[in-house]
Design brief:
Structural class: alpha+beta
Helix content: 25-40%
Largest sheet: 8 strands, mixed
CATH architecture: 2-Layer Sandwich
Order of helices and strands: EHEEHEEEHEHEHHHH
Organism: Diaphorina citri
Family: Belongs to the PtdIns transfer protein family. PI transfer class IIB subfamily.
Protein name: Cytoplasmic phosphatidylinositol transfer protein 1
Pfam families: IP_trans
Strand content: 25-35%
Radius of gyration: 24 Å
Strand order of the largest sheet: 2-3-4-5-6-8-1-7
CATH class: Alpha Beta
Low-confidence stretches: 265-276
Distance between the termini: 76 Å
GO molecular function: phosphatidylinositol binding; phosphatidylinositol transfer activity
Number of domains: 1
Number of strands: 8
Mean pLDDT: 85
Length: 276
């Protein structure tokens, strides 16, 4: 049985606001986290259309992260390693798939839907009876759940941040039951890594890694509120393109430095003769 988890992440925003905030956060976060050849490289970013969900945006990215994986995964993968992310954004519904050509049995699928509530919809994504029985639900609190210390920044801590433009924040204990406005990001994550002897450990690692990324990213989306609040969808798409180009440059290795050829010195006929 594939591990099926549903994360519910309330946010002190509206669904319409979060549409801009999410795009801004992903672009900026990807750029900031990319360095030394590791990070997120955008390959495709185009419009798409679906019979059920309408018009949307399709992106394909390569996530370079070999040195960030635990040793037991590094031991079975090549040094040049990346995960392919394919995402279909039909806001307020999105699908994201992660695969790896080097590990055919690795597959992660994330289905997401956003609603203007605090996580009270018990089947937001329309799961089947079988999926509901297998599902584990976890609420993430962007203010009071602990994050990895290496990602902590006081200016991005919702317990201390207050928006100058909206007055929202700091978030107090119990904010999810009283705050207005409020919306929720519902994410169902299916992670499979069917390699004998590693499956349970790998699937637990996948879920923990996704949980950590979701928590940090949603904290940043709120803490950067004043920077994206006045953007239109066109504005944030322009910003997204700029950040993707800048990030791709960071991930492109510099050309090799060729040694400087020695400056030739005059030689006498005798020296040429002796060399020959």
């Amino acid at each position: 049985m594939v591990l099926l988890k549903e994360y519910r992440i309330p946010m002190p925003l509206t669904v319409e606001e979060y549409r801009i905030g999410q795009l801004y956060m992903i672009a900026r976060h990807s750029h900031e986290q990319s360095e030394d050849g590791e990070g997120v490289e955008t390959i495709v970013n185009i419009s798409c259309e679906d019979e059920e969900h309408g018009r949307g945006q399709y992106t394909e990215k390569r996530i370079h992260l070999s040195n960030r994986l635990p040793y037991w995964i590094q031991a079975i993968i090549p040094k040049v390693f990346y995960i392919t992310e394919k995402a279909w954004n039909y806001y307020p519904y999105t699908m994201t798939e992660y695969t790896c050509s080097f590990i055919p049995k690795l597959n992660i699928m994330i289905r997401t839907k956003f609603e203007d509530n605090n996580g009270s919809n018990d089947n937001c994504l329309g799961l089947t009876e079988e999926e509901l029985l297998a599902r584990q639900v976890e609420y993430l609190d962007i203010a009071y759940d602990e994050i990895n210390p290496k990602h902590y920044k006081e200016e991005e801590d919702p317990k201390f941040f207050q928006s100058k433009k909206t007055g929202r924040g700091p978030l107090k204990e119990g904010w999810r039951d009283t705050f207005e406005p409020i919306m929720c990001s519902y994410k169902v994550v299916e992670g499979a890594f069917e390699v004998w002897g590693l499956q349970t450990k790998a699937e637990d690692f996948i879920q923990k890694a996704i949980r950590d990324i979701l928590l940090v990213g949603h904290r940043q989306a709120f803490a950067w509120l004043d920077e994206w609040l006045d953007m239109s969808l066109t504005d944030v798409r322009v910003y997204e393109g700029e950040m993707q180009r800048a990030t791709n440059v960071k991930l492109t290795p510099p050309p090799p430095t060729l040694p400087t050829p020695p400056t030739p010195t005059p030689t006498s006929p005798k020296s040429w003769f002796n060399w020959a």
